[in-house]
């Protein structure tokens, strides 16, 4: 546990990591993990050394998205060694527990596991660590926001009003703990018919733009609802790897470029 100053933990860096970017959503299932992995792979495509840390202790998604499993090896100095695929280093609670064993833990055990994931992983001098946050604004999010020196946070939302109301809660939390907001990503924002190429805004079109404007935030990108994004993710090969030159990867690379513009 880091030292306390005036009752608050001192914000720390993660050993072996230069910059930390959080990917967050206040509501579950909006596509946060899919955005995290594809943006991490895009940062890598743009020449950075990147890792991804999955701190969704109760529903880790990164092992499946990277088609990785098995326990991490332990280094000589007792640290967890990341598992890698597609050139990306990764660490997740999913490697430490068997998928068939649900996590039923007391609060203290959760906090201990979180400390291990945050500070006991031997990353190899990364330019960027993308942190896939759990949905919501609970204990894990608060601990991370208070203990880590975070360079910026991305909020993923869908255009439905209900997700937007939740997104506002996430914005408020990051403002409270002085984490710079890089912007909003609007996921499943529209659907392009594969036959006639007609673009429909199934869930409405103006919500995220309105919220972004109200909170003086940039919209980093709008990602369509697309079958390939879903099937490739399920197959453990995110689109930035499986279809690097297809227009379906472009929004993720654009988001990564905007992140670099803000943080470099
Ligand atoms: N743009 C998209 N088009 C189609 N399917 C998508 C898109 N983005 C995400 N999905 C699919 O939606 C489902 C949920 O995505 P994901 O797991 O990334 O969400 P999440 O917000 O991280 O969820 P959780 O809150 O459970 O962690 C997955 O099956 C994923 O493949």
Automatic annotation (TrEMBL):
Coiled coil: none annotated. GO terms for biological process: iron-sulfur cluster assembly; mitochondrial respiratory chain complex I assembly. Gene3D superfamilies: P-loop containing nucleotide triphosphate hydrolases (3.40.50.300). InterPro entries: Mrp-like_CS (IPR000808), Mrp/NBP35_ATP-bd (IPR019591), NUBPL-like (IPR044304), P-loop_NTPase (IPR027417), YlxH/NBP35 (IPR033756). It comes from the Eukaryota. GO terms for molecular function: 4 iron, 4 sulfur cluster binding; ATP binding; ATP-dependent FeS chaperone activity; metal ion binding. SUPFAM superfamilies: P-loop containing nucleoside triphosphate hydrolases. GO terms for cellular component: mitochondrion. It holds the Pfam family ParA. Keywords: ATP-binding, Iron, Iron-sulfur, Metal-binding, Nucleotide-binding. The keyword Nucleotide-binding applies. Belongs to the Mrp/NBP35 ATP-binding proteins family. This is P-loop containing nucleoside triphosphate hydrolase protein. It comes from Hyphopichia burtonii NRRL Y-1933.
């Amino acid at each position: 546990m880091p030292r306390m100053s005036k009752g608050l933990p001192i914000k720390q860096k993660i050993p072996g990591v230069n910059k930390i970017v959080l990917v967050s959503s206040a509501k579950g299932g909006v596509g946060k993990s899919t955005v995290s992995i594809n943006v991490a792979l895009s940062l890598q495509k743009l020449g950075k050394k990147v890792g991804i840390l999955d701190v969704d202790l109760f529903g880790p998604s990164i092992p499946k998205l990277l088609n990785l499993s098995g326990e991490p090896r332990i280094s000589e100095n007792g640290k967890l060694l990341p598992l890698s695929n597609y050139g990306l280093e990764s660490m997740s609670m999913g490697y430490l527990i068997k998928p068939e064993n649900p996590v039923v833990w007391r609060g203290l055990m959760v906090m201990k596991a979180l400390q291990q994931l945050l500070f006991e992983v031997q990353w190899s001098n990364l330019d960027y660590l993308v942190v896939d946050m759990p949905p919501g604004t609970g204990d894990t999010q608060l601990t991370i926001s208070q203990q880590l020196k975070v360079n910026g946070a991305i909020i993923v939302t869908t255009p439905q009003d209900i997700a937007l109301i939740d997104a506002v809660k996430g914005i408020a939390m990051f403002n409270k703990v002085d984490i710079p907001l890089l912007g909003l990503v609007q996921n499943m924002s529209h659907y392009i018919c594969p036959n006639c190429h007609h673009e429909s805004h199934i869930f409405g079109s103006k919500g995220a733009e309105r919220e972004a404007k109200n909170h003086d935030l940039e919209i980093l990108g709008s990602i369509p609802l697309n079958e390939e994004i879903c099937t490739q993710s399920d197959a453990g090969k995110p689109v930035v790897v499986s279809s690097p030159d297809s227009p379906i990867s472009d929004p993720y690379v654009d988001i990564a470029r905007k992140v670099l513009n803000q943080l470099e």
